[in-house]
Write a structure and sequence with these properties.
Layout: H1 7-12, H2 16-19, H3 22-45, H4 55-58, H5 66-74, H6 78-86, H7 92-98, H8 110-113, H9 121-135, E1 150-154, H10 158-169, E2 173-177, H11 186-189, H12 198-210, E3 214-216, H13 227-233, E4 236-239, E5 245-246, E6 259-261, H14 262-273, H15 279-282, E7 292-296, H16 300-312, E8 316-321, H17 332-340, E9 344-347, E10 349-356, E11 360-373, E12 379-383, E13 389-392, E14 395-398, E15 402-403, H18 407-410, E16 438-440, H19 443-446, H20 451-470, H21 472-477
Parallel strand pairs: 1-2, 1-4, 2-3, 4-16, 6-14, 7-8, 7-14, 8-9
Antiparallel strand pairs: 5-15, 10-11, 11-12, 11-13
The chain binds flavin-adenine dinucleotide and iron/sulfur cluster (SF4).
């Protein structure tokens, strides 16, 4: 039977306040947590039936060898489990924390489908790799042999970092350019710390630095350095810039104070967790404390906004969404988490404008109903005439999704071909773009997607770049 994690607190509680220092108590808790996590991971791993039809594996974008590392965990062979898990995933502890497992591996677990509840694959993956970090099994990926050729990576998000890791291990000179002051992309400044602790991201960045990857931060390509200059300096280039153009809302009062973009709001909150001074947060503009917060959206970003607002001490948090629960694209697990934390979901509603003089005081809400399914099978929302009302609000957060920036124009490189959605057009196996020696990965190719897909792209593109640089033409050009 599973041990009760609180037991030690109960038996020692009389002595603890006087005899144990706060640091010792924290260590006690960490020890209990470790024991408990180990037991839980082993218990979960042994639930895998080794079914022989590993849908979990085929629905993991990295095709992680899940059944095998579960078996190794169940039998206590943790280091081997870690080695197997990291052989297909550059950042397993990150995926274990933030993959929407209910849509990927766990949603396709045979035990889940037979109605007995999935093996918690993500939690086990996180546990294996956290243990590996603790035990010193995670080694710096320094190459055995140096090579002269160099690769520029534009964008230090998961796609760029996964490629940097693979290219550096192969001995190439790797420089990562990013416009932010810290590497990690949305892992650092988008996804909140309660889902992905920032030290988990930073220790990966530090390891890449220790392996010899050069980071050029606070450097916007197209402003501080031209794309042409980067191409001239390096033998190959990888574009991994993500998508950052926020979709916007019009309507009466749309430019009132107190109506903010989701990414500005989340970035401010993440910066505060690093201890940065953030003027817009300190002035209260991007702080939900004591406010009635309304979030407008319908994906995973809005879920992060509402849950951050709850943690900042908002007096109420409402999410407006124009479809109903069953037709929402975000993770159902996230919806459940948010509901448990007190978020009020106002289904079948859309904003029609904003009330207020200088500052927003309310959102004009239109009620909707669901009509016939569209071509994708989803039922389209239709307006219910005359059913508008005003939802009081002190802070409105717009989380309507992201689109790519116009890179060919911004970088003065019209030969870089893009799709009609503005994403970079590239070969989906090699990730080669229309420019020789230039590759692209992650959200800038797929549109807003997932970390695990960016990692997969980054690993694949690194292999293509290695093939390209090893080809006779590239060698002759050196
Ligand atoms: C709020 C939020 C929450 C999310 N939550 C999850 C989640 O829980 N699970 C999940 O799997 N996915 C989640 N995602 C999606 C996930 O974060 C992205 O799919 C993933 O980060 C894409 O990786 P990337 O490497 O393509 O780009 P990014 O992570 O966006 O990194 C791109 C980098 O490029 C840099 N850059 C851009 N333009 C330039 C330029 N001109 N010059 C220099 N540098 C530049 C940026 O500063 C950035 O650091 C979330 C996204 C958001 C917005
Ligand atoms: S990487 Fe994501 S989808 Fe793959 S096994 Fe891990 S948690 Fe599941």
């Amino acid at each position: 039977m599973a041990k009760q994690p609180m037991l030690k607190f109960v038996t020692t509680s009389k002595e603890m306040p006087t005899k144990r220092t706060p640091d010792e108590r924290r260590e006690d808790f960490a020890e209990i947590y470790r024991e408990y996590a180990a037991e839980k991971a082993q218990e979960q791993a042994s639930r895998c039936s080794q079914c022989g039809v590993p849908y979990c594996q085929s629905h993991c974008p990295l095709h992680n060898n899940i059944p095998d590392w579960l078996m190794l965990t169940a039998t206590g062979r943790l280091q081997e489990a870690y080695e197997l898990s990291q052989s297909t995933n550059t950042f397993p502890e990150i995926c274990g924390r933030i993959c929407p497992q209910d849509r990927l591996c766990e949603g396709n677990c045979v035990i889940e489908q037979s109605g007995h509840g999935t093996v918690t694959i993500g939690a086990v993956e996180k546990y294996i790799t956290d243990t590996a970090w603790e035990k010193g099994w995670v080694k710096v990926g320094a190459p055995l042999e140096e090579r002269d050729q160099s690769v520029a990576i534009i964008g230090a998000g998961p796609g760029g970092l996964a490629a940097a890791d693979n290219l550096r291990r192969a001995g190439l000179q790797v420089t990562v350019y990013d416009r932010y002051d810290r590497a990690g992309g949305l892992l650092t400044y988008g996804i909140p710390g309660f889902k992905l602790e920032k030290d988990v991201v930073m220790r990966r960045v530090e390891q890449l630095e220790a392996a010899g990857v050069q980071f050029v931060l606070n450097c916007t390509v197209g402003e501080d350095i031209s794309f042409d200059a980067i191409r001239g300096k390096h033998d190959a280039v990888l574009i991994a810039t993500g998508v950052y153009k926020s979709r916007d809302l019009g309507g009466k009062g749309a430019d009132l104070n107190g109506i903010v973009k989701a990414l500005d709001y989340l970035t401010a909150s993440n910066r505060k967790s690093f201890g940065d001074e953030v003027e817009d947060f300190d002035s209260g503009r991007l702080d939900a404390k004591g406010k009635r917060v309304v979030v407008i959206g319908g994906g995973d970003t809005d879920m992060d906004c509402v849950r951050t607002a709850v943690r900042q001490g908002a007096t109420s948090v409402k999410l407006l969404y124009r479809r109903d629960r069953d037709n929402m694209p975000g993770s159902q697990r996230e919806v459940q988490n948010a509901e448990e934390e007190g978020v009020d979901f106002v289904w079948l509603t859309a904003p029609a404008g904003f009330e207020g003089t200088e500052k927003v005081e309310g959102v004009v809400v239109q009620k909707m109903r669901l009509g016939a399914p569209d071509l994708s099978g989803r039922r389209s929302p239709e307006l219910i005439e005359g059913a508008d009302y005003v939802e009081p609000a002190d802070l409105v957060i717009k989380a309507l999704g992201f689109e790519p920036e116009e890179l060919p124009a911004l970088w003065d490189v019209p030969e870089l071909t893009v799709t009609r959605w503005g994403t970079i057009r590239c070969d989906h196996t090699t990730h080669a773009t229309s420019l020789p020696g230039v590759y692209a990965v992650g959200d800038i190719v797929r549109g807003a997607s997932l970390v695990v897909w960016a990692i997969r792209d980054g690993r694949e593109a690194a292999q293509s770049i290695l093939d390209y640089l090893a080809a006779p033409a590239a060698v002759a050009a050196e």
